[in-house]
Design goal:
Strand content: 5-15%
Number of strands: 9
Helix content: 55-70%
Distance between the termini: 87 Å
Radius of gyration: 25 Å
Bound molecules: S-adenosylmethionine
């Protein structure tokens, strides 16, 4: 009996040593030591959890998932193994199965805040507020003073339309932490969504006072005051799409019937049947244009602010290079007459003012080249540029036509399209193909 604890201690120490080797990316010695541990304890789930980490660190997702599944087979009643499997599935974008496993882990340990928090992260990553809601309620009940959990619960309630409860939670938390910027930002959003512009304005003013360098707060303050800020701050775009990246393709293409990249790829194939051309894909996101186009006989370059979107795009292996920068800077710094085609699918809705983007795109195109992009359609009787409550911009067709012509394009073809669905209704927009003289 007396040797067992020290044997266990030694085993755990060796597991920790392997974990540290993986963290340092010393993968070969980590694999050797893990194999030794696996031979000594072939049914120990912790060995397989480390096997999963090793597989991920080595860039072998298949092996990682196999190891995570094996950990659960060894200990089906151990919530840690089950939530590790759920997290591994989420990292591989198997979102539905990851949520089901997360639920199983919670069923095994309904009062465990650590498991609940990880499950909530998984549901957030999968953009599934309805799934996260009961988990957040439970977590908030267990830790009512935890500001992050309370804020996330309020956000989820807002997302599923339970605004009053969301507000009450935020009021309670803010009573104890009146200068908490994250809570104030959450309340500002919820107040704005619920039509309380005066309350939202108060929060926005306070936020700008507390964090004067924060561009997003200044953007929101302008928007709430009824002004139209020139563009969405890069950090806001990056924050939105970094968190959206894993669920983007599934959500947008399947859920919201988004088909612009497919249509644009079809047009390119028709115009350049041999695919001998260079393309600059502005705001390339997860690389859907490249997916529909396949490999081309020229350069396909992707530009995007969100590194997480670019990580997804890189998996398809069709882009030659990526630049994680603001497309306005990319265009400004690109030499003249380099590309046959420049695309911007569903991107200018975040850029807003196109006063520099369109003339720069004209300069960067080769003679006879084309700029193809989509916009949400603003009412012709209103302003040229509108910032909608969705925080996306809409452009007036006539203003875009005028800007393209002023920039030098000789033919500006407009096609009216439904861009995607939103709350069950199509978003009206238009696709532009602007041609540079030969
Ligand atoms: C709705 S997604 C569209 C992605 C892709 N073009 C498609 O059609 O699937 C918009 C993308 O534009 C990127 N984006 C928005 N504003 C940007 C900017 N100023 N510079 C670079 N990328 C931007 C976002 O990060 C996001 O990946």
């Amino acid at each position: 009996m007396s040797t067992l604890p020290s044997t266990l201690d030694e085993f755990n120490r060796q597991l920790q040593a392997v974990e540290q080797l993986i963290a340092k990316k010393d993968l070969r010695p980590a694999a050797e030591q893990l194999n030794t541990l696996g031979r000594a304890a072939p049914q120990h789930p912790a060995v397989y959890i480390l096997g999963m980490r090793l597989g991920e660190a080595a860039g072998n997702p298949k092996a990682a998932l196999q190891a995570a599944r094996r950990a659960v087979e060894c200990a089906p009643g151990w919530p840690v193994a089950v939530i590790e499997l759920a997290a591994c599935l989420a990292r591989q974008n198997a979102l539905e199965e990851s949520l089901a496993e997360a639920q199983k882990a919670i069923d095994l340990a309904p009062e465990d805040l650590g498991i609940l928090s990880r499950a909530i992260d998984i549901a957030t990553h999968a953009r599934s507020p309805a799934t996260a809601l009961p988990w957040l309620r439970k977590a908030h009940a267990l830790a009512p003073d935890d500001l992050t959990l309370g804020r996330l619960l309020a956000r989820n309630l807002g997302q599923v339309g339970q605004i009053e409860e969301a507000k009450q939670i935020l009021e309670k938390l803010l009573a104890n932490a009146p200068g908490n910027v994250e809570l104030l930002a959450e309340r500002m959003t919820i107040r704005y969504q619920s039509g309380d512009a005066a309350g939202a304005q108060q929060d926005a003013d306070r936020l700008v006072e507390l964090a004067p360098d924060n561009e997003s707060f200044r953007f929101w303050r302008q928007k709430i005051a009824g002004a139209v800020p020139e563009t969405q701050p890069p950090e806001m775009v990056k924050g939105l799409f970094d968190s959206y990246a894993p669920a983007f393709d599934l959500h947008l293409v399947r859920g919201l019937k988004y088909d612009t990249p497919r249509k644009v790829a079809e047009w390119i194939r028709g115009r350049y049947p041999t695919l001998e051309l260079n393309i600059l894909d502005l705001g390339c996101g997860t690389g859907l244009l490249g997916v529909f186009l396949g490999r081309i006989n020229g350069f396909l370059i992707g530009v995007d602010l969100s590194t997480k979107m670019l990580e997804q795009a890189a998996r398809h292996n069709v882009y030659d290079r990526f630049h994680a920068v603001n497309l306005l800077d990319a265009l400004r710094e690109t030499p003249d007459a380099l590309y046959h085609v420049i695309t911007a699918c569903d991107v200018f809705i975040y850029v807003g003012d196109l006063g520099s983007a369109i003339p720069d795109a004209f300069r960067v195109l080769r003679p006879d080249g084309n700029l193809i992009f989509t916009c949400e359609q603003a009412d012709e009787s209103g302003r040229d540029l509108v910032l909608r409550d969705s925080m996306r911009y809409a452009h007036k067709v006539s203003a875009i036509q005028a800007l393209c012509r002023k920039s030098g394009f000789d033919d500006v073809a407009i096609e009216f399209v439904d861009l995607r669905m939103e709350r069950g209704a199509p978003i009206r927009g238009f696709r532009v193909i602007a041609h540079k003289p030969a």
